[in-house]
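User: I'm writing a short report section on ligand binding and want a predicted complex to refer to. Could you take this sequence and magnesium ion and write out the structure as tokens? A short remark afterwards would be nice.
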Amino acid sequence: MTSVLRDIRLHRGLERILIDEETLRRRVDALGEEISTFYADGEPLLIGVLTGGFVFMSDLARSMSIPLSVDFMAVSSYGDAANTSGVVRIMKDLDRTVEGRRILIVEDIIDSGLTLNYLIDVLQRRKPADIRLVALLKKDRPRTVDVAVDWVGFEIPDEFVVGYGLDYAGKFRNLPFIAICSPDFIRDE
Ligand code: IMP
Ligand code: MG
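Assistant: Sure. The structure tokens for the complex follow:
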């Protein structure tokens, strides 16, 4: 059965596909392999950043070939709007302690860098063995804060994107590709 989700013409508000399903799959698999090699001598705790990171987390975890654990945090920096407020709040904290653990933060996208910067700060104070970062996407724009990302899936233009976990006003998260949201759509909503 052909999924209606896969036909971009059926989604009002989307401009074009930026990264298709196959390209995502291949890149995430390659990241999984690379990261598995890095953690060959110490089991990592993957910390997914909700909600946008849930699809990437799920595919990345399954593309890794080593034992690992998974936990999630939810932070809010956006509300429903497409512009960052700079204010970050923890909406859901981790279920377990991270002291002495090797942690890998799994984030959907780095835009201003504010969210990750805040998260790293919070987690660092809990004394993990080390902290690494993987982001599926990184926008090509002057950053508000600089974050040291260890692995990036794709560098993308400074546009608002949705799909593969990413939303606009709660929508589009289940699209199997990453698409550019049309600026008119964001403005008119
Ligand atoms: P920051 O500006 O780097 O702090 O990004 C904060 C969060 O905003 C990201 O984790 C995403 O959840 C969300 N975000 C930033 N850019 C986009 C986008 O283009 N599409 C959807 N969500 C975005
Ligand atoms: Mg996010």
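A remark for your report: Strands lie at 14-19, 44-50, 69-76, 89-92, 102-110, 130-139, 151-156, 161-162, 178-181. The two ends are 32 Å apart (CA to CA).
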